[in-house]
Amino acid sequence: MSAKLNLDKLDLQIIQEMMENADISYADLGKKLFVSGGTIHVRIKKLEELKVVKGKRLSVDLKALGYDVIAFIGIYLEKSSLYDSVAKELRKIPQIVRLNYTTGNYSMFAEIVCKDIQQLRFVLHDELQKIKGIERTETFISLEESLDRNVVVTTE
User: Would you give the DSSP letter of residue 58?
Assistant: First the structure.
């Protein structure tokens, strides 16, 4: 991917550093990478234009905000050709935070975050079941998240 986009070592270093701490100032990042803050600014703008960088997100402890249930839902579709229309409907459910089109047993796999089991039940029973094209679902409740990290970006 990096060869196709023509990204160099500095671009990848900037990406890696900002994935670890997006709050770092361009000046401080420039000092760390031995370039000017202006160079960092220009490179970030280039990465945004190339759609490599898609904004910056705040990392939040959802449990501290009262979101106690994380679940994964395997979704079986009546026909795989229904993926686009089902995905469009699933995007309307705010508790779904991640959605993937997959190979294997499920046509789609979704991650859902809810305040409690009642909210999960509402999403599963009242929201998902009314979407045309979903044949059935299988739900897995997460007991603990043991790892959450970004990929390490390298020049190799």
Answer: -
What sections of 2-123 are H helices per DSSP?
A: 2-5, 9-20, 26-33, 37-49, 83-90, 117-122
CATH class, 2-49 region: mainly alpha
pTM of the prediction? 0.79
Assigned architecture for domain 62-141: 2-Layer Sandwich (3.30)
Element (H, E) at 138: strand 134-141
Do the domains at 2-49 and 62-141 have one common CATH topology? Answer: no
Radius of gyration over every alpha carbon of the chain, rounded to an integer in angstroms:
20
**What pLDDT, on the 0 to 100 scale, is given for residue 130?**
93
Residue 53: C-alpha distances to residues 8, 9, 11, 120, 132 (Å)? 15, 16, 11, 32, 34
Place of tokens 């679902």: 137
Residue with tokens 């370039």: 35
Residue 73 is inside which H or E element, if any?
A: strand 69-77
- What is the predicted pLDDT for the residue at 156? 62
